[in-house]
Design the sequence.
DNA sequence: CCTAATTACTTAACCTGTTAACTATTAGAA
DNA sequence: TTCTAATAGTTAACAGGTTAAGTAATTAGG
């Protein structure tokens, strides 16, 4: 599935000249490592989702509506960490499948609130146990302490880097 | 840019019934945390790449060819951790832009080796300094020790989870 | 030698990420 | 009040992730 699965002999690093010596650190790529980890984790959840023709993002939306209750599209977008254009497509898809429904807001006709349908709730109940089980499995195999540490480091990394996004934004304005 | 940027008040968790009490842990999603971290990191590299109309994946390919030398598509796919169908599109794009070139293999005509062109090498030299600088910046801001720890945890997580992929595969066969 | 399986790679179809532009509606200022 | 700016959401266009199917060349078995 993933490219590294049938990983064979990789090309050796070329002998580096003085010129490119400082580039060796390139070999470790943080985005790539994060991506690999994400894929490895998602692979554990995928079977349960694929069995019901759901993507992980669609599942995230259903889960969010189940747990937090009805939400507007923008709110869903924030909560699920999915950009609005993507969310727009996702809710259309889920709505077409009868898993969620849209309720217009008479106060502000730009807004519309999404809600799980009964059928969506049934699907949630069908998938949730396997999802919980998979999560517990990962926690056990990897270790609770390490998992917490990982979460902390990731949060901290995001905090560190987005803090100076703000700084940049301030500079710009 | 990212949905959480203009993060306002999020919907509070609904009061949980006895039934769904065990679902609270859902609120922390490992894939989502990994994605957020990845996006935060990539945002740091994007400006330099976007200035030259490169995506991070395209840059990864160029970097790989510069550092490891000419490679076949499958090898590139492994090294860059990009699936072959994606790689197929990427090399076509880079080739069309004259940044890499394709050399047929006379021994085995299914294979073709990709190589950086002079123009590709020039582009690499133009972008690399900013990329290195960004990486060093992240290392400093986040802390070298924590960064190493993060890499270790990610590698370990992948190892833990893919180890039992194999087990599953064995069971299946 | 000839057919069947494998291998390297491409194409296709679908979904999401990302940026920009666009519509409709509401809020604000002159 | 009317004209402008902001807001909620959608659409469009392009790139990559993912799975499946397809093509061409090579290897292996009979």
Sequence:
């Amino acid at each position: 599935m993933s490219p590294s699965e049938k990983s064979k002999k990789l090309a050796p690093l070329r002998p580096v000249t003085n010129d490119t010596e400082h580039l060796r650190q390139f070999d470790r790529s943080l985005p790539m490592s994060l991506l690999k980890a994400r894929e490895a984790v998602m692979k554990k959840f995928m079977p349960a989702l694929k069995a019901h023709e759901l993507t992980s993002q669609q599942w995230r939306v259903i889960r969010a509506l189940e747990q937090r209750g009805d939400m507007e599209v923008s709110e869903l977008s924030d909560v699920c960490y999915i950009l609005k254009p993507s969310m727009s497509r996702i809710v259309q898809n889920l709505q077409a499948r009868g898993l969620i429904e849209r309720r217009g807001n008479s106060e502000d006709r730009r807004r519309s609130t999404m809600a799980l349908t009964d059928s969506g709730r049934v699907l949630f109940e069908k998938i949730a146990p396997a999802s919980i089980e998979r999560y517990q499995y990962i926690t056990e195999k990897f270790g609770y302490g390490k998992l917490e540490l990982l979460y902390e480091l990731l949060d901290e990394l995001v905090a560190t880097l987005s803090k100076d996004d703000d700084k940049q934004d301030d500079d710009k304005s």
Summary: Chain B touches chain A through 74 residues (CB under 8 Å).
